[in-house]
Amino acid sequence: MARLIDGKQLSAQVLVEVATEVQQLKAEHGITPALAVVLVGDDPASQVYVRNKVLRAEEAGIRSIEHRLEADTDQQTLNAVVDQLNKDPEVHGILVQLPLPKQLDEAQIIAAINPAKDVDGFHPLSVGALASGQPSLVPCTPLGCMIMLQQIHNDLSGKHAVVIGRSNIVGKPMAALLLQANCTVTTVHSHTQNIEALCRQADIVVAAVGRPELVKADWIKTGATVIDVGINAVEVDGRRKLVGDVDFASVEPVAEAITPVPGGVGPMTIACLMKNTLTAARAQLASVASKDIESNPEPTAAVG
User: Fold this and answer.
1) pTM beyond 0.90
2) pLDDT (tens digit, 9 = 90+) per residue, 265-275?
3) Is there a domain that residue 41 lies in?
4) CA 284 to CA 83: how far, in whole Å?
5) Does residue 288 lie within any of the structural domains?
6) Which end of the chain is more exposed for a tag (fewer CB within 10 A), N or C?
7) Are residues 178 and 66 part of one domain?
8) Which residues are known catalytic residues?
9) Which branch of life, at top level (predicted)?
């Protein structure tokens, strides 16, 4: 049987590490990292997700700020909230919970967030920095997947990874991170031919398409590592059940390691949001310090 990659346990470790660094930041600089979450409307899944984010922030010692707006909020109002948070020096991370109601332009609001506070890693500048290998805030789910993979493989260099899905939130940034780790990366999607054959070549399979139990045992090479990003609600015997994009029961005996659903990637996504908020706070502190030095240079000693 495959080794289970326990996202709950690993996310708890990440949160402990973040909490320790948050305390150091407070002690050394008097700064408490703050995460502002903007929720528009009353989507039940979004509300649960936001509540979990607030709880994890408390565990990590991060200050949580919530802005809850009505479902009929217009673009100008939402833009004004984001602008206010951009200008607030005590807010280090901004997250606008997606999806937004239909009358709002998601691309516009993502682009309106200060890239330095873009803890979701969705801003075009964040995307460009990741693609070109520059330091940046990385989307939380792919970052969590990389931490999980590093628990299984000391060195990812040279491994063949297949990413199923090409979304801006998971598939594309996941492929970029794997390339940075010197993997050979194949991205497959709905127009790819012979997906099963490509997946069978992979040492690592990351499934992120939102199709229940798409990936079967005959897609997976013996000994591969399988990261299941999908979380889908299905009805089994009249009951609601959460399943991934991977047919866990058939794939587990074949794989070397696999993430469960639930309890796999999901907890890591929120833990990495806290990690990104800490990273953003440290970067903003360094930026302020750099500007202070530039505006107040050390006096030059007189010669002669």
Assistant:
1) yes
2) 999 999 999 99
3) yes
4) 17
5) no
6) C
7) no
8) 53, 97, 120
9) Bacteria
